[in-house]
Design a protein that fits this description.
The chain is α/β, with parallel strands linked by helices. Helices cover 29% and strands 23% of the residues. Helix 3 crosses helix 4.
């Protein structure tokens, strides 16, 4: 079986999403934020069959029930299982987390289990401990605040990295998933480097609005940030939250909207304001980034991003798809079907910073932008 983790208020939508993608799926909720998928095939077969899942923030492939009778017994059993399964000395990550909604005592219990695991590794298999310690850690500073760069905040999986996830659903019971390299790296968009797929929502009181948090989170999940000297087009830019971040870092932005941006951004030499319809704008030459958080019907935003990547007008893209109601969610299936034909990689997700919307983000191709013709 495979477990999918979502925000509690979106679990029903994840269930509908999987029911559309898989023939007669066997779905069983495990609380209000965990969905069990009983699939007969391997993780690779299941992943390819269902495609990306916008409402799942994390997957635990090939998960199984793991008893936690005590901290010590659980730690000993875990290390015994990993010996011979995880390559000695190779890097691996360990996520021990409570399911969303579990009391703070559950998080403390997870911390104690991790400490006991590290102690067991120190006694029994130092080569595995060396591999665990070799993975770069999240920076201590807030990676998605107002800092000019977010690189290194939580690196994406390298090809040689494995991932172990232990999800505590009660004090005495957990689910265990072990994904051996190179599967975590191959499963970008399904398997998140963030524990439980959760990213703290960014806060910056100087930004024109809280919408900037969606772009910050998308960059973190991509493992790529807008850099100084890069060119961006921000469609539907006003009041300027998605223009604010790039120019803070020294990027150049063409901001397109019928209404002007906040006054300081209108004066910023890194911003070129183009008054007009975001859906009609075409850059004279391809740009590094397409940014779009415009308020529009979902089919219009979906059509816009597909047109831009099909015509190779950008190298990277972050686009919000806003919904009017639950019936609109099925339109995301168009992106799942069409995007792979035109891009090198992409993700589709209801972000931690999203409301009634989802974001699609990814890379058309690396290297210098190529002319559409």
């Amino acid at each position: 079986m495979h477990l999918a983790l979502s925000a509690p208020d979106t679990l029903p939508f994840l269930r509908e999403e999987l029911a559309r993608a898989l023939p007669s799926p066997m779905l069983e909720p495990q609380g209000d934020s965990v969905l069990m998928l009983k699939a007969p095939g391997s993780w690779d077969e299941t992943r390819n069959a269902m495609g990306l899942t916008a409402f799942a923030r994390q997957w635990l492939p090939q998960a199984r029930v793991f008893p936690v009778p005590s901290i010590r017994v659980a730690a000993e059993a875990l290390v015994t299982e990993w010996i011979g399964t995880l390559p000695d000395g190779a890097p691996w990550r360990l996520h021990i987390e409570p399911r969303l909604g579990v009391a703070e005592a559950g998080r403390h219990r997870c911390e104690l289990i991790r400490e006991a695991v590290v102690e067991q590794l120190r006694k029994r298999r130092r080569s595995l401990l060396k591999g665990l310690e070799a993975v770069p850690k999240t920076t201590s500073a807030d990676p998605i605040g107002a800092c000019p760069s977010i690189r290194g905040a939580c690196p994406l999986f390298e090809a040689q990295e494995s991932l172990v996830q232990l999800l505590l659903v009660s004090p005495e019971m957990a689910f265990l998933s072990v994904l051996v390299a190179p599967e975590p790296a191959r499963s970008l968009g399904w398997i998140s480097p963030f524990a439980s797929g959760e990213v703290p929502v960014a806060v910056d009181k100087a930004a024109p609005s809280r919408a900037f948090a969606k772009l910050a989170e998308s960059e973190l999940r991509m493992g790529r940030s807008i850099a100084a000297g890069e060119t961006c087009v921000d469609l539907g830019a006003a009041p300027g939250s998605w223009t604010y971040q790039p120019v803070q870092r020294g990027a150049r932005v063409v901001a397109v909207d019928r209404s002007p941006l906040r006054e300081d951004l209108m004066r910023n030499p890194g911003v070129t304001f183009h008054q007009g319809d975001a859906f009609r704008f075409v850059p004279e030459t391809p740009v590094d980034w397409l940014l779009c958080d415009v308020i529009a019907a979902p089919e219009r935003s979906i059509g816009l991003v597909l047109e831009w990547v099909r015509e190779r007008r950008c190298r990277h893209f972050v686009v919000t798809v806003k919904f009017k109601g639950h019936a609109d969610y099925a339109q995301l299936d168009v992106l799942k079907r069409e995007m792979p034909r035109h891009v090198a990689s992409f993700q589709l997700m209801h972000l931690c910073a999203n409301k009634n919307e989802a974001c699609v983000f990814g890379t058309v191709g690396d290297g210098a932008p190529k002319d559409a013709g």
